[in-house]
Write a structure and sequence with these properties.
The complex is a heterodimer of chains A (398) and B (172). Chain A is mainly alpha-helical and 398 residues long. Chain A has 18 helices and 5 strands. Chain A has a 5-stranded parallel β-sheet with strand order 1-5-4-2-3. In chain A, strand 2, helix 14 and strand 3 form a beta-alpha-beta unit. In chain A, 39% of the residues are buried. With 172 residues, chain B is mainly α. In chain B, helix 2 crosses helix 5. Classes of the chains: A mainly alpha (398), B mainly alpha (172). At the A-B interface, helix 1, helix 2, helix 3, helix 4 and helix 5 of A face helix 1, helix 2, helix 4, helix 5 and helix 6 of B.
Chain lengths: 398, 172
């Protein structure tokens, strides 16, 4: 699953990829006319709205692409760089940049592009940019208060507004189309000689309608994650499935034996997990099975994953979802963790029936021995720190 | 030879959007520009005045985040590509020329150069506070629908419209 970096592409290759992305970026910017400061600032004086058209079309094209890829599980948005929100810093910084835009006639990307084709003013703009960063660096203490204040994490706008991702996307598309129509009118008023109308012909309107329709029906379309999670809630269905089971005695024996290949995957709540944390275990939710980092960590040839929860059914639900995603070597702990606690951790000596066979006697003897050792083994295995089980986002930004 | 016409802005927009999407799909991050200027600046400070870089929090933080090699950075490579790409475009469209572009009522080149330096300077400062510029914060932020990026986007364009009136003589 994308982003491809780290999983399929090493960091070095990613830098080379960045170089090629930059070539396309620079080529398109220049082709669109972003190498001209007069064309760029035309947006703010009403005589040329090229920037607005290119900018919004680009942003919304990528937005639609991200939504579609995310929906079909091809892109994990949790790993994509999401600009952090520092409210005051964003507003003040944006206003300063806006001022710089109308005074300088460029923004950083376009100035580099213009400098590359020989625009002297752009070269001075880039130089000014270097001086600006230096100034900020030298006066960082002055800015630090506002720079770090009101940090609200990395929220999405649809979460901030409390609406769905798809609805926000449609709103943005409608706003953009309305703006495109409006700026055409302004442009022809301010600059009547400009009869070069870039508005797409009828044909393109169908593409636009198609995209909006696609976003509207997207939430109702097949989605593997939602489908599996829903299927897992179907108790009758789960009961009808076959799973590899592990008896509590084998489970206990292998913990007692300090078998490193045995990986308990614990689906109880974090609070319950903290109360009893088995060696080499991981605490997950069923949803977390979909995270790439967990998949990579747990899906190793030599591992035997023992899914456990308070009851057998919950563990089976998780095992079903995991096997559908592609996890291998899954076992389900028979009768849930309660059976392990009762028979081992809270072992109470009791007389055996006189006709007990050898297996029952052996099992009893093992329980008697292991019940003394297991609490120690579990205590010793406790990690010093709480494990971070989340994979990291790409570090990005300017 | 005459300059070729510019690309239709809507087509350019879709192409640019696809490039941005590709960057997100492969590298997990959007496009950017000011970050590269920052990398080069910090690199310069470290080379010219290493002890100063070591004693100043801003540079120190940045060097730490980038394992002391600020130039081995995604955005630096990307912007190097931008220079090449824009150059190729300018070459094929007959737009390569050393030229100072200014508004019709700007009398001297000095005023335009001063304006460009001040504008760049403000972008240098503002993009630090905004954690990105028009590319890294506004455009890429819009693509992933991040509140932070979109807030910065509105501030940039809102600010530009608010201040445009006072600098109309530079452009009209």
């Amino acid at each position: 699953m994308a982003p491809l970096v780290n999983e399929f592409i090493p960091a070095q290759i990613d830098l080379i990829f960045a170089f090629f992305i930059g070539i396309f970026f620079g080529y398109i910017l220049e082709q669109a006319g972003f190498s001209s400061s007069r064309k760029l600032v035309g947006l703010f004086y009403g005589y040329d709205f090229t920037v607005l058209r290119v900018f919004f079309t680009a942003g919304l094209t990528a937005m639609v692409g991200v939504i579609i890829l995310t929906h079909f599980g091809l892109l994990n948005i949790d790993l994509v760089y999401i600009n952090p929100l520092f409210v005051w810093s964003a507003i003040v910084g944006g206003l300063i940049m806006g001022l710089g835009f109308v005074i300088g006639g460029y923004c950083p990307g376009t100035s580099v592009c213009a400098a590359a084709i020989g625009k002297v003013d752009a070269i001075f703009f880039v130089l000014g940019g270097v001086l600006g960063v230096l100034f900020f660096g030298e006066t960082y203490n002055f800015w630090e208060g506002i720079y770090l204040s009101a940090n609200l994490g990395n929220p999405f706008l649809f979460d901030t507004l409390g609406i769905s991702r798809e609805l926000l996307a449609i709103l943005f598309i409608l706003i953009a189309v309305g703006t495109f129509i409006m700026v055409k009118k302004i442009e022809s008023k301010v600059n009547p000689e400009n009869n070069n109308d870039p508005t797409p012909k009828v044909y393109y309107k169908y593409i636009f309608i198609g995209i909006v329709a696609l976003i509207i029906i997207l939430p109702f379309m097949y989605n593997k994650k939602d489908y599996l999670l829903k299927k897992a809630q179907d108790t009758e269905f789960i009961k009808s499935q076959k799973f590899e089971m592990m008896s509590v005695d084998e489970f206990a024996y292998r913990i007692w034996d300090k078998d490193k290949k045995l990986i308990p995957v614990d689906f109880r709540s974090p609070v319950e997990y903290k109360g009893l944390q088995l060696p080499n275990s991981h605490n997950l939710t069923i949803e977390a099975l979909f995270e790439r980092a967990n998949y990579k960590k747990l899906n190793k040839k030599e591992y035997q994953l023992v899914f456990l929860a308070n009851d057998e059914l919950t563990a089976k639900k998780a095992a079903f979802v995991a096997s559908q995603i592609g996890y291998k070597n899954i076992f389900v702990l028979k009768d849930g963790i309660g059976s392990f606690v009762d028979n081992y951790l809270n072992f109470k000596p009791h007389p055996l029936p006189p006709d007990a066979n050898k297996l029952v006697k052996d099992t009893y003897r093992f329980r008697e021995v292991a019940s003394k050792d297991l609490p120690k083994i579990i205590e010793e295995s406790k990690p010093k720190e709480v494990k971070q089980e989340k994979s990291k986002r790409v570090l990005g930004g300017c | 030879m005459e300059q070729n016409k510019y690309l239709n802005p809507y087509i350019a927009g879709v192409l640019l959007g696809l490039v941005l999407l590709l960057a997100i799909f492969v590298s997990g991050r959007g496009l950017g520009a000011s970050g590269a200027i920052k990398s080069v600046t910090v690199y310069g400070v470290e080379k010219i005045a290493p002890s100063h870089a070591e004693n100043t929090k801003f540079y120190q933080k940045y060097l730490e985040e980038h394992n002391n090699s600020p130039l081995k950075n995604w955005l630096v490579f990307e912007v190097a590509g931008v220079i090449i790409g824009a150059f190729i475009s300018g070459l094929t469209a007959n737009r390569l020329a050393l030229k100072l572009e200014k508004g019709p009522n700007v009398k001297t080149n000095g005023i335009r150069i001063l304006g460009a330096i001040v504008g760049g300077f403000l972008f240098g400062v503002g993009s630090q506070l905004g954690r990105g510029c028009t590319s890294g914060a506004a455009l890429s932020g819009l693509a992933v629908l991040s509140t932070g990026g979109i807030l910065t986007m509105f501030a940039i364009f809102g600010g530009a419209y608010a201040f445009a009136y006072f600098f109309r003589k530079l452009w009209l």
